[in-house]
Amino acid sequence: DLQWQLSAVCLFLAWLNIILFGRNLPGYGHYIIMFLKVTQTTVVFLTLFTLFIIAYGLTFVTVFGNHIPFMTIGRSLIKSFVMMTGELDFGATFVDRRSDPKPNNLVFYDGVSYFLYFTFLLSMCVIMKNLLVGLAVNDISKLLKTASIKQACLMIELSLRAENMMTSKLKFVFHDSYLDYRPNKFPDGFWPYFKETVVASIFPIKLPERSKLYVSETGHDNMFRNRTLQW
After folding, report:
1. Is the pTM of this model over 0.90?
2. Which of 1, 51, 61, 67 has the maximal Cβ count within 10 Å?
3. Could you report the average pLDDT of every consecutive run of 10 residues in the chain (231 residues)?
4. How, if at all, do strands 214-216 and 228-230 pair?
5. Which of 121, 120, 128 has its CA nearest to residue 55?
């Protein structure tokens, strides 16, 4: 039994790790970053939300204690949380007692029970859910402006970690000791010059801001240590 439980937890954590690793993927990483930010906001919001769950959970134990979902405090808290998602189960709580008058279906305090039930419906299912959606929309609107920059930072960090894991000989194989960058000269012949001037003027391609990373490196000994990065 313990083996199956640990297997389920390990599978979940493994796939969660794959999802977090996807933050470095272009085109999808910023969505994962936004998801993590909304999750963080939700966890902070749950500190206030938990107080309402405890309040209604203890209240429902008092007035619906004969119903199976509310017989214990633990069940009542879980049922209150599930009811917030939309599973109100109004028929089983108030209607089934008329067709099947069992002790587990009876409601002994109609006035207070209806009042507390509809108070829960208004405060938890309407106000709280709309407030949570509003917080998520606010976070997403802010992250849309900075998510791509954060993703680029994560990609650079991943590249630097990969370089640090490589041996010195392997670095030497994939490294050019000297990089000469001349933006205003075309040493490769006429066609590169024609493509960069005439074709570019006819079919202009607007590059996004901060889209080029220029790297200047010299020397074999400091090839992965001393570098100049200019945005």
Report:
1. no
2. 67
3. 90 90 75 82 83 90 84 89 82 71 76 87 86 82 73 76 68 61 59 62 52 41 42 39
4. antiparallel
5. 120
